[in-house]
C-alpha cells in the first residue's frame, strides 16, 4: 500500500465527514485526482471500516482522525500538523425527521462545525472551502427546474436540518465579504444515491433509513418488510413524489471539478449538483426491482409532512463553468446500490 505523501503534485485536502456516504466517495476521487485527503470524522453516523475499504479501493493509506469538529483544539492540531490547501466540509447531521425532534443538536452540530472550520481557516491562513449544501435551501419551488438564481427563503424551509444548511450558506456568504481573497463554493446536492461500483462502500444509515433508496434497498434484502410510498395524490405523472436522483460518484466528481475553480480564484460560487431529470417513487421502486431481479413489496400511505411534489435541478451552470455533468444513469445508480446492499446486507457491520 502506498503512503500518499504531502509533496505529491497536489495538496492536502481536509474532509470533515470523510468516513460518511458522500465524504468517503470524495476521498476516493481526491486520491484519484492526485490530492492528499485527510479524513476527519466523529463516527457518529459512519464507520471506521468504511475508510479501510476506501484504502482497499484506492490502494493508498488514507490519513484519518477520529475528531469531532466541535472540538476546536483537536481541529487546530490537524491544521498545525498539515499545510491544508482546501476543505471539503461533509460533516453534518442530515436526518430531516430527527432534526425536527432535536433542533438544538442539529444547529449546534451543523453550524458549530462550520464555525470551527472557518476559525481554523482564519488562524492558519487557509483560503479554499467547499461546502456540502442541499437543494433543500430552495424551499418550495416557485419554478422548475431549480437553477441557482431561484430564491432561497429560510422561512419556507420546513425543518431544522434544511434551515441549518440555509444558515451555513449565509455564514459563508458573510465570510466572503470579510475575506474577499478566499474562495468558497456551495454545492447544492439534489438526491445522492447509488454506491461505489466495487460494492465495497455505500450508504449505511444507522437505524431505519429516512431516505427512499436506502429504505427500498433494505426491503429487498429483507431487513424491512415493505416500502411505504408517502403520498400517491401529488400532481405528478403517477401521483408519487418526483426527485432528481444523482449517483454519489457523480456528486464526488462534481467536488473535484469544483476544486479547479480554486486555482482561478473563483471567490464565492454556487452550483447545483443534479442530473436535471426527475423520477417518481414508483419509478425508483421499479428500477431497483430491475437491478435486483426481485419483486419489491410496498404500501401506499398518506403524504409525509413537509414533502414537496417535484424537485429537480437545472445543472447547466455546473456544466458551463465546471465542465461537469452527471454521467451515470438510473440503471447504474440502482445496479451499484444493489451490489453494495446485497454484498453488505448489514452495512459495514
Ligand atoms: N419517500 C417514500 N417513502 C420513504 C421515503 C421517501 O415514499 O420511505 C418519498 C418521499 O416522499 C419523496 C421521495 O421519496 O417523494 C424522496 O424522499 P427522500 O427522503 O429520499 O429525499 P427528500 O427529497 O425528501 O430529501 C432529500 C434529502 C434531504 C435534502 C432534500 C433536498 O434527504 O437531506 O433531499 O431536496 F434536504
Automatic annotation (TrEMBL):
Q: Does the keyword Isomerase apply?
A: yes
The record's family statement is:
Belongs to the NAD(P)-dependent epimerase/dehydratase family.
Q: Does the keyword Isomerase apply?
A: yes
Q: State any single GO MF term.
A: UDP-glucose 4-epimerase activity
User: Which organism was this protein described from?
Assistant: Rotaria sordida
- State which Enzyme Commission number(s) the record gives: 5.1.3.2
Q: What does this protein do?
A: Catalyzes two distinct but analogous reactions: the reversible epimerization of UDP-glucose to UDP-galactose and the reversible epimerization of UDP-N-acetylglucosamine to UDP-N-acetylgalactosamine. The reaction with UDP-Gal plays a critical role in the Leloir pathway of galactose catabolism in which galactose is converted to the glycolytic intermediate glucose 6-phosphate. It contributes to the catabolism of dietary galactose and enables the endogenous biosynthesis of both UDP-Gal and UDP-GalNAc when exogenous sources are limited.
Q: In its UniProt record, which GO terms are filed under biological process?
A: galactose catabolic process via UDP-galactose, Leloir pathway
Q: Which reaction does it catalyse?
A: UDP-alpha-D-glucose = UDP-alpha-D-galactose; UDP-N-acetyl-alpha-D-glucosamine = UDP-N-acetyl-alpha-D-galactosamine
Q: What is this protein called?
A: UDP-glucose 4-epimerase
Record domain NAD(P)-binding: where: 14-336
Q: Which cofactor does it need?
A: NAD(+)
* Oligomer and partners: Homodimer.
Kindly list the GO CC terms recorded for this protein: cytosol
Amino acid at each position: 500500500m502506498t503512503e500518499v505523501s504531502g509533496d505529491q503534485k497536489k495538496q492536502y485536502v481536509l474532509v470533515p465527514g470523510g468516513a460518511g456516504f458522500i465524504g468517503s466517495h470524495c476521498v476516493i476521487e481526491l486520491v484519484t485526482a492526485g490530492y492528499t485527503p485527510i479524513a476527519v470524522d466523529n463516527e457518529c453516523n459512519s464507520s471506521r471500516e468504511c475508510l479501510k475499504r476506501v484504502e482497499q479501493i484506492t490502494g493508498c493509506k488514507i490519513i484519518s482522525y477520529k475528531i469531532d469538529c466541535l472540538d476546536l483544539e483537536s481541529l487546530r492540531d490537524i491544521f498545525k500538523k498539515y499545510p491544508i490547501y482546501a476543505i471539503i466540509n461533509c460533516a453534518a447531521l442530515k436526518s430531516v425527521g430527527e432534526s425536527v425532534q432535536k433542533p438544538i443538536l442539529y444547529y449546534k452540530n451543523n453550524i458549530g462545525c462550520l464555525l470551527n472550520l472557518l476559525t481554523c481557516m482564519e488562524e492558519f491562513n487557509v483560503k479554499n472551502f467547499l461546502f456540502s449544501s442541499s437543494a433543500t435551501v430552495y424551499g418550495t419551488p416557485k419554478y422548475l427546474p431549480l437553477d441557482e438564481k431561484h430564491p432561497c427563503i429560510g422561512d419556507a424551509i420546513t425543518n431544522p436540518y434544511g434551515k441549518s444548511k440555509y444558515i451555513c450558506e449565509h455564514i459563508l456568504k458573510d465570510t466572503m465579504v470579510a475575506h474577499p481573497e478566499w474562495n468558497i463554493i456551495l454545492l447544492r446536492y439534489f438526491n445522492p444515491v447509488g454506491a461505489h461500483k466495487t460494492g465495497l462502500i455505500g450508504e449505511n444509515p444507522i437505524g431505519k433509513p429516512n431516505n427512499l433508496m436506502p429504505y427500498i434497498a433494505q426491503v429487498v434484502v429483507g431487513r424491512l418488510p415493505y416500502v411505504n410510498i408517502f403520498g400517491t395524490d401529488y400532481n405528478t405523472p403517477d401521483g408519487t413524489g418526483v426527485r432528481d436522483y444523482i449517483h454519489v460518484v457523480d456528486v464526488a466528481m462534481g467536488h473535484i471539478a469544483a476544486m479547479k475553480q480554486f486555482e482561478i480564484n473563483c471567490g464565492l460560487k454556487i452550483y447545483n449538483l443534479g442530473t436535471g431529470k426527475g423520477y417518481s417513487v414508483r419509478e425508483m421502486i421499479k428500477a431497483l426491482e430491475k437491478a435486483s431481479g426481485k419483486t419489491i413489496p410496498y404500501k401506499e400511505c398518506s403524504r409525509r409532512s413537509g414533502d414537496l411534489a417535484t424537485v429537480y435541478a437545472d445543472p447547466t451552470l455546473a456544466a458551463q463553468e465546471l465542465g461537469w455533468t452527471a454521467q451515470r444513469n438510473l440503471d447504474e445508480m440502482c445496479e451499484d446500490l444493489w451490489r453494495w446492499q446485497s454484498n453488505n446486507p448489514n452495512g459495514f457491520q
